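Hey, quick one: can you model this chain's 3D structure?
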Amino acid sequence: MTLTKAENEALRQRFCPAGSPLRRQQERMLEMMVWLDGVCRRHRIPYWLGSGTLLGAVRHGGFIPWDDDVDIEFRREDYTRLIGVLQQETAGTDYALQIHETDPGYFFTYAKLRDRHSELTEQTGYDHIFTFRGIYLDLFPFEPMPAALHWISNRTFGRVYKVMKNPEYNSQQQVRRTGAILRFNQRYIFPLLRAFSCLSSSRLLRYSPGIPFESVRDPEQLFPLSSVTFEGHSFMAPRAPEAYLQRLYGDWQRLPDIDKIQTHTSAISFK
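Sure thing. Here's the predicted structure for all 271 residues.
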């Protein structure tokens, strides 16, 4: 279901009217999406809009009016190739690839594409040790993995959050300790989990190890990829977007209680 133009406009006027900080943030993210789509198409790297971004495309024809982030999903092998491409493609541009290797304070196991001409602060406060803090797109890798092994990966990576929440550590200590945990996991724990995964018959795709989200993706709903219109632009999407959303959200056509909506961003500035 796509909301009517009048319904969407009423929501936009409430949450992201033209010229508001949130609408400017959405417009900047859209520019980044168009740029990334061009990179992926030139290098034949498949992706699909995911989670709330796909929900926005199907239900609203673009951004959910209160949404302040973008989720783009990849098979792990395509994601790995994209990371190599982006290290070259972002050179001398308005964008930066944020991974641990380009930002020592960044401890997540998925990448972000960051805008260099803005700065935001997230509600979690974790980003205070990051070098890149601009508007971003989340780039998530997925791979086959049994639920039990993915649960283990989340427990091992959970040590990072204990470091970030420990008031005894200053920023430099947080960078060193989270980096050490990340490198240990990437060198030893995650390859071991992947080796065990190869012995299983798991068909469903889960977030790659260390990404603490539990939802799964069904390849039959994803491939072959289709396309969807988002804010007037065409982007890659799951083969069956409504089935994808039903699996993820249940009654995805129903709007949430808009009086209880919370965003990720607590402050933003544009350069």
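One thing worth noting: The chain has a mean pLDDT of 94.
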